[in-house]
Amino acid sequence: MHSFQRAGQAIEAGFDRWQLERPMTLGNFVLEQIRDSCFHKELQAFPEKTSSYTLIYVLSGSGKLIQGEQSVPFGERDFVFAAPGDCWKLDSSSNGPVRLISVRFREVAGRFNLAEVIHTIGTEGPQPVRKDNGALEELLLGLQREIEARDNYAKAMAESYLQQLVVALCRLGTHHATAPKQEFKRAPMKQELAYQAVRYMDQSLLEIKELSQLADVLGYSYSHLSHVFRVEMGESLQSYWARKRILKAMRLLQSGRTNITGIAETLHYQSIHSFSKAFKKIAGLTPSEYQGLYGLSSGKQRQVYN
């Protein structure tokens, strides 16, 4: 699938790439455009269309979203799901450039009540900014990656990513978004406790700042959880978590979407130094060396699996 790139608007510095030459029908939706932008001052919206929805996702940077008389602050991993006809503009703060991805699409059939999602997804104002837990970012980058791919499977994969993206937004607009996080029952078996620990790290890696937080969620002391994990998994809990974080860092470095400082902050390392030290211990390379070898721009990208 060939990618099409053109300037969306003249910007003082950075880039504004529109990746589709024409709309694509992907299952229940028509994907009209994916827009990859990095700007230092101001970015205007897509031209208004009465039937299309726009997801605006901030990969890095901060500033404010302006809609009419309303001005709302935004930061890294914030997103807005904009209704048809909405007119928006983004202003960056003085701290540096803003990097964002915008996806515009419309429904072919009325299977998803997106108007209701728009209404219920927010807590205040007509189009409030919401914080992503990492799920939307993965889907957006996956969709963009498949649009840029040139093999026979790219369109099917792009359809899958867009479908998952819309379902994720719909869930945010239902009781799934406001329901309390899953409460883990005290596990009757040690093997089950180890499994629950692994699954929580799979699902909520970016939310874990320290392992005592994981123990609290599962309802056990850290010492007990750590002991059970080592016995059942043959590896320490600390070692498993460290490896999961570095594998996530590898994927982020491959994508080229986030700088090394941003990755260290996202994975809750105390400093760039501690992140680099942990990364080299497991990967055998510094983050900069790894990104130079396997980042998108290197042409040597490889897949890293959990």
Automatic annotation (TrEMBL):
Name listed for the protein in its UniProt record: Helix-turn-helix domain-containing protein
Q: Where is the HTH araC/xylS-type domain?
A: 195-293
Query: Quick check: keyword Transcription regulation in the entry?
Result: yes
Q: Name one GO molecular function term.
A: DNA-binding transcription factor activity
Fetch the SMART domains from UniProt: HTH_ARAC (SM00342)
Q: Which InterPro entries match?
A: AraC_XylS_family_regulators, Homeodomain-like_sf, HTH_AraC, RmlC-like_jellyroll, RmlC_Cupin_sf
Q: Which residues form the signal peptide?
A: none
Report the source organism. Answer: Paenibacillus lutrae
Provide the alphabetized UniProt keywords: DNA-binding, Transcription, Transcription regulation
Keyword Chloroplast listed? The answer is no
